[in-house]
Amino acid sequence: MQWKWKSAAASISISNDEELDNSGEGQLTSLMKAKMNQTLLSLQDEINQGFFASTQGAKAINCLPTLVDATSTKADISSSANSWWQSQITAGGSFAGRGLADWLTMYNNIAKQGVSGGIADIFLTTQAIMEYYERSQQPQMRYMIQGDNMPLANAGFESLKYKAATVINDPNCNSGVTYVLPSANLKFVVHSKAKFQVTDFVKPANQTAKVAQIVFRGNLVTNNRRKLGKITGISA
User: Fold this and answer.
1) In the 8-state DSSP scheme, what is residue 202?
2) What is the torsional sign of CA 193, 197, 203, 207?
3) DSSP 8-class letter at 235
4) 49 near 210, Cβ under 8 Å?
């Protein structure tokens, strides 16, 4: 099994006019920091979107839709030809009708898939599905009166769990999908020398601007694909 490094980069440019307009040392430093922060956030957002891309580009990091499936080739191993390299996939449906049952079955299926790894501790899904789950739990809420104080109605939950798993949502998560993942078997590895490092500014011969880059090198990998689960087609 061999995973390949994937790289990404974003450029920071400061024009000659910007340098002149911010010629004070403090002003120029503030400008550079603002540009670096903006570029870093853009690069991080690009990588996060890549986690949920429908197909993986040749130079892109592994994306969950193809990493968590039963047909694609990953780490040079064909899951179609090797059933032990297939993820757990379930076609879902109405959350109100079967959502919790599907979550329970997937949670248990992952737990029994060999001894390499642990139980699922992350349920990664959309905001809509997370809200389906929270609404399903609201009838279980209870309010308490402490001492002589009137009860304080504080509806909703600050965080959500399902058994040992934390339920989280991502705005880029694929519609109708819940990923059921054990962190012991899924890692986002980052190269120690390309962990969003900023290169030196250089001035190209044919430009008046200075340019630097923020560089990243890493990948999303697994050591046991059978421990990764996905429920698709979830609706209200």
Assistant:
1) B
2) positive
3) B
4) no
Please provide the DSSP assignment of 92-109 as one string.
--BIIIIIHHHHHHHHHH
Pairing of strands 229-232, 178-181: antiparallel
Amino acid at 16: N
Neighbours of 32 (CB within 10 A): 19
Whole-number average pLDDT of the chain: 89
* Under 8 Å between Cβ of 3 and 75: yes
Unique residue bearing structure tokens 């694909």: 225
Pairwise CA distance, residues 161 & 209, whole Å: 50
Spatial distance between the Cα atoms of 232 and 236, rounded to a whole number of angstroms: 13
Indicate the SS3 state at residue 116: coil
- How far from chain centre, in Å, is Cα 156? 24
Dihedral sign computed on CA atoms, order 162, 163, 166, 171: negative
Q: Report CA 72 to chain centroid distance, whole Å.
A: 20
Pairwise CA distance, residues 162 & 122, whole Å: 9
Rounded to an integer, what distance in angstroms lies between the CA atom of residue 117 and that of residue 120? 9
pLDDT single digits (tens) 161-201: 999 999 999 999 999 999 999 999 999 999 999 999 999 99
Q: Distances from the Cα of 18 to the Cαs of 24, 29, 103, in angstroms?
A: 11, 12, 54
Q: What is the pLDDT of residue 153?
A: 56
Q: What gap in Å lies between CA 106 and CA 178, rounded to an integer? A: 10
